[in-house]
Amino acid sequence: MGRYLGQKSISFILTALVVSLVTFLILQVLPGDPARLILGTEGSPQAYARLREELRLDQPAGERYLQWLFAFGYGRWGTSLRYGLGVRELVGQALPLTLTIAVLAVGSALAAAIPAGIYIAVRPGNWGAKGLSFLVQIGMALPQFWVGILLIQFLAVRHRLLPAGGREGPLAFVLPVLTLALPRAAVLTRQVRAGTKEALTQDYVRTARAKGLPERVVLFKHAFLNGVFGVLTVAGIQLAQLFAGTIVVEQVFGLPGLGQLLLAGVFQRDLPLVQGIVMVVAVLILLLNWIHDLLLALLDPRLRYD
Amino acid sequence: MRKIIGISINLVLALLIFCSPGLAQALHIAVPTDPDSFDPSQTVAAATGEIAFNIYEGLVKATPEGKVEGALAAHWDLDQSGTVYTFYLREAVFHDGSPLTVFDVVNALDRARDPEIAVRAGELEVIEEITALDGAVRIQLKEPHGAFLYALAEVFAVIYPAQARDLARNPVGTGPYSLREWHPNQQLVLESFQEHWSGRKPYYQQVVFQIIPDENSMVLNLKAGRVDLIPRLEISTLHQVEGDQNLQVLAAPMNLVQLFALNNKRAPFDDLRVRKALALAVNKEEVLLGAAWGQGQILHSGLSPAMPQFYNPDLGSVNPYDPQKARALLREAGQENLKFTLVLPANYPLHIAAGELVAEQWKAVGIKVNLEIVEWGTWLEKVYNQRDYEVSVIGLAGRLDPHAILARYQSDNSRNFFNFANAEYDRLIAAGLQAAGEERIQIYKKAQQILAEEVAGIFIMDPPQLSVMSKEIKGWKHYPVYVVDAASLYE
After folding, report:
1. Residue in B34, B185, B226 nearest the CB of A165
2. With a cut of 50, which residues of chain B have pLDDT below it?
3. For residue B230, what are the β-bridge partners?
4. What is residue B13's predicted lDDT score, i.e. its pLDDT?
5. A160, B211: Cβ pair inside 8 Å?
6. Which of A244, B159, B275, B486 to pair with A62, CA 20 to 30 A apart?
7. B 408-447 residues with CB below 8 A of A?
8. CA angle, corner B202, sides to B104 and B20, nearest 5?
9. Which residues in chain A (223-252) have CB-CB distances under 8 A to chain B?
């Protein structure tokens, strides 16, 4: 176990380094300059020079990267060029919101997908199953921002049942979570269906049935649990994607999450802010990978060899 | 059992609704971005000026008519030479409770004109010396300067207590509202100031500026009642609010000059015939209809009719829509196969729409136009800074005084990304600062004529500023500068 953790930590640090370097290079290659973006079309050369000096943009790029890296290594995240606030403070405000929404969205997608998927797998010819399959197709095809805007239009503007945006009270989370969960539930339903269906054709299911086990036990203990790995992997990827940004939904619902902050950072070429966010997201995704590995090992006896 | 569950669900819902913060007496205004900094010596973003107008005051302030009136100065006088202003201060109190003194004024203005401190010090470089008198402040100018008072009305010249620190995040002014909270990317909460020198108390105890970057969400939030007012609605979303019983749309010129910038130094645009041909081929009515839903004012030069005093109304006939003549001019210049790239800034839907329409009009006279949409950072770097472009579309924001708007076409001006160069024009703009009254007005009218005749750029329109708000709100005031006057609003 110790060796496993050691290996993981080293690859963890290396990945984070590569991520920070790539982020830095991309922001260097992009045309545009934070000082110029702050000044807009009214800036004078004097003002520009002064601002560059103040933001320390007059120093060579490589030097700035190394300075940032060392400071970050010591836990200093720097100051956002756009907001003039600590990056850690800004990320700290935005992160809980994004995490909450992401976890709620994937959680509710799973909660809907598991019964729906099993149902379709078990009763493929049934009208209910056909209807569900149809909904799944539609759910996968709809663009998220559009679903979000339709939901606001219908539930917030026309019927005023739920808030149109913001974060006042738990009800404000219903629409964004629903918007994110719908297409993900569709994908997961297909995954559950495929996994369960395949498992149902396996020998061990026939054996279980031959032993005279009740169909309920056959279905859940033998068929579904064997098909669940693919589902977990997909859900893990979905969660990672959401950590990296619920940008569209944050924009539509005016939620001050990590995605909006990242977008503002990129548009303003705000290097410390973008680096800070990217590092947090990278670490989250690496952690998620690790938890996923662990979970699979726990669930699958064949992987418990170490 | 089912009944009990139903009742408890309702109770929980009711509880949730009651727990959400009360909205009474608060006005919610939607804006797309955060301010940059509330430190008057550092701020440059229009988004800051819009909010700071309610927090800070200068010696004078802008009026909706585009003039200036006394704010912290009750009145002022100017000596015979036109170089010595004396401002007589009012009795006023800052948000932190300290009284306004002449030393606060001297400190704030000395900092504002110090190039070592203030980003926009250049705007006040005409000041020679500022002296504290008893209850008054004397400002000695290096030379007469027609635009000086207007500069004092801007956010870089506002007054704050000399002892104030960290103004960037904690502004202290004398305005009708003080800043209570600022959550970046989320909202700013302003609270009404009870001791304003005017004795007036704003109707709304709280004004909340909510940051909503997406246009459509802004409108939906307004319709759902989470937002009461959108000061600047993107024209493309106008149809979503028109006809809504609960909303009112108020339109006024924005005092913004939308133009096709032509790189005057780059061939073939260094040839007046080519510039003129491009101008003649543009049907501005069609652009106004297609890009701005017919709202807004057509322009013929670099100043908007929103500045009625200085606007030259006689330039409509300089470059009328005439595709025949445009073709002839192109032939004459040997440019029948003219081909160029039109760069459009991605963050401005209005400019993109105008660019696409005009590109079609140019194609109709045989010009090949290659459209390139670039992100704002790229635009500022390539077009504005390096001046490495052929043709582009942009809107230039209005100011209170024509000098601030027209000076950018002077050949040596750092903001002259058109590379426009005309000796007569340079002379006029310099003379405009020394002149006064009718003479000054005539100078700027002549300057506008040169911009039109020499086709510094192709001036299209002053788009409308569309302010949308709930029907209950009254007292909205349009300004020719970028501000929201929250204190004048009531229900």
Report:
1. B226
2. 1-3, 5-24
3. B468
4. 46
5. no
6. A244
7. 414-415
8. 110
9. 251-252
Domains of chain A: which residue ranges? 2-73, 87-269
CA distances from B66 to A299, B150, B448 (A): 72, 9, 19
Cα–Cα dist A105/A187, whole Å: 13
Residues of A in contact with B396 (CB under 8 A): 41
Taken in order of first residue, the domains within chain B and their CATH numbers are: 56-157 (3.90.76.10), 177-252+467-488 (3.40.190.10), 257-462 (3.10.105.10)
- Residue B14 has a pLDDT of 46
CATH of domain A87-269: 1.10.3720.10
Distance, C-alpha B443 to centroid of its chain:
24
Sign for the pseudo-dihedral over CA of B138, B141, B146, B150: negative
Which pLDDT value is given to residue B438? 92
CA distances from B468 to A33, B235, B476, B480 (A): 34, 11, 10, 17
**Per-residue pLDDT reduced to its tens digit, A226-262:** 777 788 889 988 998 888 767 778 888 888 889 888 9
pLDDT band at A2 (very low <50, low <70, confident <90, very high): low
User: Residue for token digits 């028109």?
Assistant: B242
- The 3 state secondary structure assigned to B395-462 is EEECCCCHHHHHHHHCCCCCCCCCCCCCHHHHHHHHHHHHCCHHHHHHHHHHHHHHHHHCCCEEEEEE
Give the mean pLDDT of A68-78.
88
Q: What is the pLDDT of residue A146?
A: 83
Give me the helix-helix angle, A271-299 and A61-73, nearest 10°. 50
CA dihedral B228, B230, B233, B238 (to 10 degrees): 10
The answer to whether A202 contacts chain B (CB < 8 Å) is no
Of B61, B34, B66, nearest in space to B173 by CA: B61
Instruction: Say if the Cβ atoms of B44 and A251 lie within 8 Å.
Output: no
Chain A contact set for B186 (CB, 8 A): 167, 256
ipTM of predicted assembly, 2 dp = 0.77
pLDDT for the residue numbered A43: 67
> Would the CB atoms of A42 and B16 count as touching at under 8 Å?
no
Neighbour-count burial for B326-338, b at 16+ CB within 10 Å, e otherwise? bbebbeebebeeb
In this predicted structure, what is the pLDDT of residue B167?
Answer: 94
Phi, psi angles (nearest 5°) of residue B112: -65, -25
CA distances to A99, A110, A143, A257 from A103, rounded to whole Å, are: 6, 10, 20, 14
CB atoms within 10 A of CB B348: 18
Q: Within an 8 Å CB–CB cutoff, is residue A178 touching chain B?
A: no
Q: Is B38 left (phi over 0), alpha (psi -120 to 50) or beta?
A: alpha
Is residue B8 packed enough to be buried (19+ CB in 10 Å), middle (13-18) or exposed (0-12)? exposed
At CA A144, angle to CA A139 and CA A149, rounded to 5? 110
Peptide bond into B268 cis (omega under 30): yes
- pLDDT for B24: 44
Instruction: Report which of A38, A34, A103, A143 is spatially closest to residue A257, judged by C-alpha positions.
Output: A103
pLDDT at B20: 41
d(CA A147, CA A178): 9
The fraction of chain A above a pLDDT of 90, given in percent, is 11
Count of CB atoms situated within 10 Å of the CB of A6:
10
| Residue A17 three-state SS | helix
Interface of B with A in 33-72 (CB under 8 A): 33-34, 36-37, 44-46
Contact B476, B489 (CB under 8 A): yes
CB contact (8 A) between residue B223 and residue A157: yes
Q: Which helix (H) or strand (E) holds A195?
A: helix A174-200
